[in-house]
């Protein structure tokens, strides 16, 4: 199992190394709206609602909790 | 000079939390300002829960690669919540969770416990700074308190940039210790709900649970305009995982009607407290893709999550946002979300009389909580806002519909009744960045 994981990670990283841009090509990627979680407060509020109404949580980051609502 | 609101809020936050002492005057980098933002969420379900949730967030760059973030969230919930009991062709009287007082559910209606009320305060502090092996670390603590629930948590995550900063590997761990002190005490699993005024059958002392979350992910820049992220996360919960306020109806094996057998309160049906496993393990895969539209300046944000747990639940979540850039740095962002989950193995909308578990029999599992039943959730929303150097704002309106699948195995009068009515809600959210 360990070997499979190590192999997968190596293949993934090797694949990833052919993607990407140079530092001077990051003008668009550097925009705040291109952050993966560009509005953390909205995300947290929505996640809290869904956490209390559905049986799934997390994925983007930790599963959350700290609430008796589920 | 009149101080502006941002400065006032910043100094109030610093004074309150006394975190400014950690910043040294000899720091070679100029210490940044506090970035204060606030949000308010109003959530309203038709005939059920109403919630008001204000949040204030303060972030300060302590250095070019070090920052602290403090977030305070307050939650106020009121209204009614489905108790788990089945509707009936006759009215039913239920005892409130405290054991004092009762409420009447009319015939044909889904029983809603109208005593649902909760206030919650949560504080989260996150410290982001460089760590070993050229990683960027994020260390966090969070505390959350309700009158019947308390949670203490800590987390640590590390990110490492590779391939000329085009690939980022992330890993993290979070731990939480929760204490539950239900109103009236934690019920004995499968104990019959007693009439009001009669001593309820409860366990003594507080209940607790622990949660451990692990996450590992990779973020990859594809080209000048797009990137993606893939995360795997594992979550293990141990301890008291029951909902102490949820009950399960015991119905007649022939008529399907609730059994009324209480001598003190003839309108109190036979309902028992639920029992879930004392552990839960979840696995999730999450993928996100973001694309900047060259020319228009619009942004496409899509994500998918698959979740699987050892309760027999699996779920799919698809989320899509399209941020359309408008003149004057304004934007409009439509949002759709689709969620589908299967039912837990022990989801039991009703128990049949003669086959119900004995009080205290923890070898049996049953819960009628609709949130672990099979359903589909749909969200549609629109956000409108403006991005400025200071005073950015946005407002969002969303509609959420939870459409449940009627459980199999209905018989007798249950066949003519809706056990899993739709739940819908409106969300209104305001964000302001000072």
Describe this structure in words.
The complex is a heterodimer of chains A (70) and B (434). Chain A is mainly α. Chain A is built from 2 helices and no strands. Chain A has helices spanning 2-17, 40-53. The mean pLDDT of chain A is 82. By secondary structure, chain B is mostly beta strands. Chain B has a single domain, classed as monomeric porin ompg (Porin). The longest helix of chain B has 13 residues, at 5-17. The chains are: A mainly alpha (70), B mainly beta (434). At the A-B interface, helix 1 and helix 2 of A face strand 1, strand 2, strand 3, strand 6 and strand 7 of B.
Short description:
Helix content of chain A is 43%, strand content 0%.
Radius of gyration of chain B: 25 Å
Average pLDDT of chain A, to the nearest integer? 82
Q: Please report the total strand number of chain B as a whole number.
A: 21
Task: Please state roughly what percent of the residues of chain B sit in beta strands, choosing from under 5%, 5-15%, 15-25%, 25-35%, 35-45% or over 45%.
Answer: over 45%
Q: Say what oligomer this is.
A: heterodimer
Low-confidence stretches of chain A: none
Strand order, largest beta sheet of chain B: 1-2-3-6-7-8-9-10-11-14-15-16-17-19-20-21
What is the 3D form of chain B?
A: elongated
Tell me the β content of chain A. Answer: under 5%
* Main beta sheet strand tally, sense and closure of chain B: 16 strands, antiparallel, barrel
Ends of chain B: how far apart? 19 Å
Secondary-structure element series of chain B: HEEEEEEEEEEEEEEEEEEEEE
Structure characteristics:
heterodimer, A: 70 residues, mainly alpha, 0% strand, flat, B: 434 residues, mainly beta, Porin, 16-stranded antiparallel barrel, 3-stranded mixed β-sheet, 1 helix, 21 strands, elongated
Fold blueprint:
The complex is a heterodimer of chains A (70) and B (434).
Chain A: H1 2-17, H2 40-53
Chain B: H1 5-17, E1 34-45, E2 50-63, E3 66-82, E4 92-95, E5 102-105, E6 112-130, E7 136-146, E8 149-162, E9 167-180, E10 207-223, E11 226-239, E12 247-251, E13 271-273, E14 279-292, E15 299-309, E16 314-325, E17 330-341, E18 350-352, E19 375-386, E20 392-404, E21 423-433
Parallel strand pairs in B: 12-18
Antiparallel strand pairs in B: 1-2, 1-21, 2-3, 3-6, 4-5, 6-7, 7-8, 8-9, 9-10, 10-11, 11-14, 12-13, 14-15, 15-16, 16-17, 17-19, 19-20, 20-21
